[in-house]
Amino acid sequence: MISRIIRSPILSRSFATHAGSNVALPAVLHLKTGQSFVGRSFGAPKSIFGETVFSTSITSYTESMTDPSYRGQILVFTTPLIGNYGVPLNKTPVDSKDVGVVLESQNIQCSAVVVADVAEKFSHHSAVESIASWCHRSGIPGITGVDTRAITRLLRDQGTTLGRLAVGADASASSPTPGQYWDPTTENLVDQASTKTPYELNPTGDVKIAVLDFGAKANIFRSLVRRNAAVTVLPWNFDFNSVRDQYDGLFLSNGPGDPAHCTDAILKLRKTLQEWDKPVFGICMGHQIIGMAAGLDAYRMTFGNRGHNQPVLALASSGSIRAGRVYVTSQNHQYALKLSDPFPEGWEPFFINCNDSSVEGIKSTTKSGKKVWGVQFHPESAGGPLDTIEVSYSSFVMLTGNSW
Ligand SMILES: NC(=O)CC[C@H](N)C(=O)O
Questions:
Q1: Which ipTM score applies to this complex?
Q2: Coiled-coil intervals in this record (predicted)?
Q3: Which of 48, 272, 280, 367 has the highest CB neighbour count under 10 A?
């Protein structure tokens, strides 16, 4: 395959991007479709394969990078300047009411980051280190000095594309052959991201919620604990039906990769939905699992929706959510539920994306007497706008029965 080498004018600037080093190593981002972008390395001096995706978020690089749904992905930020507010200490003091981290999980979850201009200096009252030093000690490579607009236009036109970030000596080697690219979606990434053993948060809370952990973001736990839920976190394929009598509600979390790997959870949830009448709520992967258990199919979108400015239209009113209102939402997904006509009996579409008409939410119809909701977006944000606070409020109140 003939590869196109693309150089950015930003490359002419030179500064130290490796912790403890004054020399920025060369780096090249190769796409399986044949294009190569030449830049400089920061973070860990190592080469990796992954699925190249872009996010349009302007802030919250720390939250995005620790979101387990980015596992296996090379994350391209469309915002040019990344790193200017540094990275906070990612620990909260341990007591039963906190979830242990300030960010969305303990470690960086994406495989690599791609930025136009990584910030050499950072400034924020809670920052303890630079993005370059964080990536370096976390073993995550980054590339800077590349034209992220050009990369994003390619990803938008040709769709999410497999990639390789080649660093140091690897940067001068020729681009990989198509067969050499690793496709993370062939693996069950949920099984890698999920907890292996059950654990509890806020055990003295007044409403008992079980969480099936597909790779949950910490802000979901915070949202539940803040409403004084006693949260039991279970592995993604845990047999919830054997313990369901102990709980007041079930939550299904976000998670990485293709929902088709989660058939085990889908079949178990189908039984739960048939036999149990307590509230069930799911976000992102959790929403896809609920939809598939209800009989909908999921498909792979061309380039997915990642960013904090995705407009969704409410099609039904429920709680404080009003049909006809548009909410600006935080999103990170590649798959979506197919809009079928008719919708499976007992279900209705809840939200729809204003840009691409993809299904953004489903709910059980009140006729069935059950309260089951799934939303494709992240109402709990982190990162993202608080515009969805109303949706977040109604969704978590639906599940827990508790307000703030
Ligand atoms: N954030 C998520 O839960 C994403 C769900 C799924 N991995 C997708 O890409 O569509």
A1: 0.98
A2: none
A3: 280
CA of 216 to the centre of ligand 1 (A): 11
Structure tokens at 225: 């604990």
CATH class of the domain at 189-400:
alpha beta
Q: Nearest 5°: CA angle at 370, between 365 and 373?
A: 70
Q: Whose CA is nearest to atom 8 of ligand 1?
A: 333
* Mutational pocket test of ligand 1: of 332, 353, 381, the residue with most ligand atoms within 8 Å of the beta carbon: 332
Q: Is the pLDDT of residue 318 over 70?
A: yes
Q: What are the phi and psi torsion angles at 395 (to 5°)?
A: -65, -50
Q: Where exactly are the structural domains of the chain?
A: 26-186, 189-400
| pTM, full prediction | 0.94
Query: Would the CB of 334 count as within 6 Å of ligand 1?
Result: yes
Protein residue closest via CA to atom 3 of ligand 1: 254
| 210 confidence band (pLDDT: 50, 70, 90) | very high
| 26-186 carries CATH number 3.50.30.20 | yes
pLDDT tens digits for 97-129? 788 999 999 999 999 999 999 999 999 999 999
* C-beta of residue 215 within 8 angstroms of C-beta of residue 73: no
Q: Point out the residues that are catalytic.
A: 284, 378, 380
